[in-house]
What we know:
By secondary structure, the chain is mainly alpha-helical. 64% of the residues lie in helices and 2% in strands. It is built from 10 helices and 2 strands. It has helices at residues 2-10, 17-25, 31-42, 50-57, 62-69, 78-90, 95-112, 116-130, 138-156, 170-188; strands at residues 14-15, 47-48. The chain is elongated. Residues 157-168 have low confidence and may be disordered.
Amino acid sequence: QKQLQEIADKENIEVDEDALQLLAKHGAGSFRDSISLLDQASNRSDKLTANDVREMLGIPPDEIIDSLSRASTGGISKADAASELNRALQDGFQPEIIAKLLIEKCTKQLIESQDDETSQMLAKFITQLIEVPASSNPRMSLELSLLSGASVSAKATLVKSEVVVEAPEPAQIAESVVEAKNIQAVEAEPPKPKKASKKPGK
Length: 202
């Protein structure tokens, strides 16, 4: 990135740091490719920004990648994952690039994860995404990876609901005891004899 900045300065190309970072990152590991990308991008604007580079390279916004990456950990439903991917593809973003960015993000999450179950889901998701660029149908492969990840992770994150019963207050308990004793006392009393009815004189 520092060398790119030096070349940009020599060529009088005004470019911000975020744009340089993207150019270096997406130069396919080749400094020469990064220089070529810098030259192409310089024809788009007097001052290169990260948005200029994103548009030129077809890089989706971070919000899209963040949303789709949640498919691996149950944070998004299958319907939402499919809808989000469809919008991204309609906006012109390539499935290979989306898969590459998802791999980078999920790999970082995998390294930071301290939960075995989450780590297993992330590893499986990453393995599926790796196959996307070489697939004969990258779009279908990416969609199936997202739907599979969302389905598996959703099952793993089901939480059983619990019913909480509040304990009665002490005053309520005392009142119930007194009432029960009164009932027992009434039931224990012997029945009173009935008075004989007087018959009218003959």
